[in-house]
Write a structure and sequence with these properties.
With 83 residues, the chain is an alpha+beta fold. It has a two-stranded antiparallel sheet with strand order 1-2. It is globular and about 35 Å long.
């Protein structure tokens, strides 16, 4: 989880030229089991709708218009962690 959070915040900072990055921690509401909720929000350019399905595939790095590139670590997040 540490590496996931580092990657999410790092990408949010890297691709946000104006505005800011917000990280929120809490417990998922209306859940029978206690689950940690982590949200990373930024004011960056976002992801093209056609690329949204690719972001959880292993070893996929989305094309960026900017000259900055990610590390392409291929970190997948199982669906059970995203619910």
């Amino acid at each position: 989880m540490r590496q996931v959070l580092i990657n999410l915040v790092g990408n949010a900072v890297k691709f946000t030229r104006q505005g800011g990055v917000t990280v929120r921690f809490g417990l998922k509401p209306h859940s029978t089991q206690q689950r940690l909720l982590i949200e990373v929000e930024d004011s960056g350019a976002g992801i093209n709708p056609e690329d949204l399905q690719k972001i959880f595939e292993p070893f996929v790095q989305l094309e960026q218009i900017t000259a900055q590139k990610g590390t392409g670590l291929g970190l997948t997040i199982p669906g059970s962690l995203c619910n």
